[in-house]
Amino acid sequence: MRFPLCDHAGFNLHCTDINKTVLELPMSGTFLVHNIDYYKQQIYISDPENCLAKRLLTFNMSGSPFSSRFSTFYTFFSCPNYVALPYSYRSIPCLNNSTSSFYATTNYAFVELMLPSCQIVKRLHVPHTSPSGEIEFSSYVGNQSLMLEWLSPNCRSCEMDNVRCGFKKKSSLEVKCFGSKEPGKLNCFPCFCLLLVNQGNSINGKYVEEATCFGERFNAMYIFRSR
Predict the structure, then answer these.
(1) How far apart are CA 31 and CA 13, in angstroms?
(2) Which of the residues 41, 70, 172, 182 has the least number of beta carbons within 10 Å of its own beta carbon?
(3) Interatomic CA distance for residues 22 and 14, integer angstroms
(4) Cis? peptide before 153, omega within 30° of 0
(5) pLDDT tens column, 65-103
């Protein structure tokens, strides 16, 4: 990780004992981080227990710097197991129990037709990656991830020039770009979970004469030299 995710109050990212990057949301708990796009200022997260639908029922981004540009309004509902639904409505396995099956849909009119045999659990906005996107709550819901974004601090111009971004002063929230513009290169920070490798030896979080920085942008590798 690098600025602002590792040097800015409120982002709350850290590494676990098994070298997984996690995000702590004050009102929603812990999520696994799958990908970070520093140029677009987006982060992709999922549920460590592979039940994203359950986490969405109480999902709240309040108190964090993250937001969602797009969302879709879903109705979560449950039905007794003996109630037959159309094939297109597949249940959410991680929410099901011995007596009831759980579903989610954007078609509220259909849910109204199923009352009172079925019961509404909750209606809520679910974050999406595009205006028309829909998360399919099906047997593989555990593999889905949510895309969140941060608007401040804005480091897009620094990312475009492949230079570091940071605060102008410790007492200021204004940011500036540091380092020279070198096309194709990306400066790395000693604040990340992934390893720096030098001549086959692992060096965790330290600047070395020459090293490889793994996968922080476009899942690529970048070479840098310490100064």
Answers:
(1) 10
(2) 172
(3) 6
(4) yes
(5) 999 988 888 999 999 999 999 988 889 999 999 999 999
- CA nearest neighbour of 65 among 8, 18, 140: 8
CATH class of the domain at 70-138: alpha beta
Cα first-last separation, the chain:
20
- φ/ψ of residue 142, rounded to 5: -65, -20
Could you give the CA distance from residue 106 to residue 110 in angstroms, rounded to a whole number? Answer: 9
- Find where tokens 């897009």 sit: 156
Query: Model-level pTM?
Result: 0.72
Segments of the chain assigned to CATH 3.30.70: 70-138
DSSP secondary structure string for all residues of the chain: --TTTTSSTT--EEE-TTS-EEEEETTTEEEEEEEEETTTTEEEEE-TTS-HHHHHTT---TTSSEE-SEEEEEEEEEEETTS---TT----TTT--SSEEEEEES-HHHHHHHTTTSEEEEEEEEEESSTT-----STTGGG--EEEEE-SS--HHHHHTT-EEEESSTT---EEEES---TT-----S--SSPEEETTEEETT---SEEEEESSSTT-EEEEE--
Q: Tell me the average pLDDT across 13-28.
A: 89
Token pair belonging to 131? 């205006």
Which residue is it, tokens 């039905």?
79
